Structures are given as structure tokens and as C-alpha cells.
Amino acid sequence: MQAWRVHRNGEPSEVMRLEETDRPTPGDGQVLLKVLAANINFPDALLCRGQYQVRPPLPFTPGVEICGETPDGRRVLATPALPNGGFAEYVVADEAALLPAPDALDDAEAAALHIGYQTGWFGLHRRAHLQAGETLLVHAAAGGVGSAAVQLGKAAGAKVIGVVGGPEKAKIAHELGCDLVIDRRTEDIVAAVKEATGGRGADVVYDPVGGDAYAKSVKCIAFEGRVIVVGFASGVIPTPALNHALVKNYSIVGLHWGLYNTKDPAAVRACHQELTALAARGVIKPLISERVAMGGAADAVQRVADGTSTGRIVVLPAGAVR
After folding, report:
1. For residues 292 and 285, is the Cβ–Cβ distance under 8 A?
2. Which residues 6+ apart lie within 8 Å of 175 measured at CB?
């Protein structure tokens, strides 16, 4: 089969190589899946760079989430077992963790529903307890992770403020349903949030960026606000001033969604049922900006690494780009 493999760590476009290799062999409790679509996530870039919290042995295939087909013809969502990730024609995955692909979504959309939307749902509902009528501030609102949070925030009845970089991404954030879009390149985030909320600030901040985004967020957080720390796409891990959290009475909430797969897998399945229902109603729909053929995977991962992409880029190894 064909698979993208990484033999040394570095930038995705430099270290990913498309090769012929053997199909992976399922172990106990695993199943072989034909890959229908593989969604690109920022952790794929970190895996290539050797900067992710999991460091698979070299060589490995990146790709942390797919929509695949079981030997008996079921369409499922899966997180492939590394080092044999999803940018391949076949993967193996734990059978107990497979989730049915929603009928309302095509292969590419289904592949993008899993990690980003689960992270958004757990972050907004389980960790931050977002309430209808509250103000949600979403950084990187036109990106894959941010766009999911925007849709889920609107579904929860929140007022959503999206932060983006540039007019193209601002247009996408508006189309996603943001009540207000702030272009961080030309506008003052803190002033704009305070003006939009009558000086109160944002009740919940969804931050997959870190760095300056976090620093600005805590300057416009509301009384008893919650900052959800999802990731550090900026490459800068902030150092919270806990005295500031104390005097302003806000919470800093960490979220590593992957832990729920081992700590509370029943909650993951329940979340998937909720997401499936929202997709069936048309309330959420992954924003797919590009569907690329197998040969375009390395360049696509690099675009995600560079932060130039919008929404989700999905690799379709099993058929024509559509």
C-alpha cells in the first residue's frame, strides 16, 4: 500500500515521503480499516517535528484521525494506532474505540468531526460549562479547531466573538456565524471585546493559540470567566500570572481531550452521539477548505503547520478529490 512516512524529524514538506509499504497487521482488539479520508491536524505537524507529547519511533506515518471502512463495510471514525497513522491507504485501530460516521456528513466532513469537535464540546461544556447568553471568545476562529468551537458555541446559544488574522479569515469567521469578528492584525482585541460586552468582558475564552492570544484574553476576561487552554499553535506557551487570576476571579482550565479515551471512554461515546445529532440537524458541519489527493498530503500538512490554511484540509487516499 501507499503511505507517507517520516524517517527523520523536521518540517513536514521536507521529511514526509510517499512510499510503498506493507499493510499494518491488527493486534488483539484491533481492526484493519481502509482509509476513506484522513483529516490534517496541527499535531501532525508537531509529530513530524518531534515536538508532540507522543513521539512514535522512526519511521512512522502521521495522521491522527480518519474516516475509514471496516472489513464488513461499516463507515467509522477512528484514531489510528501510531506509528501507523492515517496518511496511508490502510490503518489499524482499536475496535472498541471506533465511532459510527454520521450519515449527514460525507467522508471528508466525518473525518474532521472527531478530535476538533470532541475537544470543543468537552472544553465548552464539560470544562467551562458554557451557558446560553454568555459571551464566548474564540481565537483562530477560521481554523480547524476554532471553527468547531464557533459552531458549538452558537449551538449552545452563546454570543460568539471570533479572532482571526486577515480579511480572508474574517470573511470565513462571519460565514461560520460569529456575532463579531476581530482582525488581530488591525484591531485591538482587548478594546473590541470590552466594547462589545459593555465593559464586562468574555465569559469563556477558547484558546488553541497561546502566546499573545492568552495574554490578551486575560485582559478582557469577565468576572468568574473561564479560559480554556487547548493548545499552543503560536509556539509560545504562556506563563500564567496566578495573582492576576486571583484578583480578577477567573479560572484557567486545561483540556487534553485524549485523556478521556482512557479515563472516561463512555463520555467520548456520549459526546459523539450529541455531535451526530447536531450534524443531523445541520447545526454543525465541519468547514472543509480543501480535499487533496494522496500525493498532496505533505504540502497540505506544511500549510497547516505554517498557519496559512483555513478550516480543515482532508486527504482522500481512497478515491478522486471531490
Report:
1. no
2. none
Per-residue pLDDT, 171: 97
Own/partner contacts of 93-98, CB < 8 Å, gap of 24 or more, are: 93/30, 93/31, 93/33, 93/68, 94/29, 94/30, 95/29, 95/30, 95/31, 96/29, 96/265, 97/261, 97/265, 97/268, 98/31, 98/70
Contact assessment for residue 109 and residue 285, using Cβ atoms and an 8 Å cutoff: yes
Q: Which residue in the block uniquely carries the three cell numbers 500570572?
A: 241
Cis peptide before 265 (omega within 30 of 0): no
Give residue 319's pLDDT band: very low, low, confident or very high (50, 70, 90): low
If 0-12 CB within 10 Å is exposed, 13-18 middle and 19+ buried, where does residue 190 land? middle
Residue closest to 6 by CA, chosen among 54, 69, 63, 73: 63
Instruction: Report pTM.
Output: 0.93
The model's pLDDT over 148-179, given as tens digits with 9 standing for 90+, comes to 999 999 999 999 999 999 999 999 999 999 99
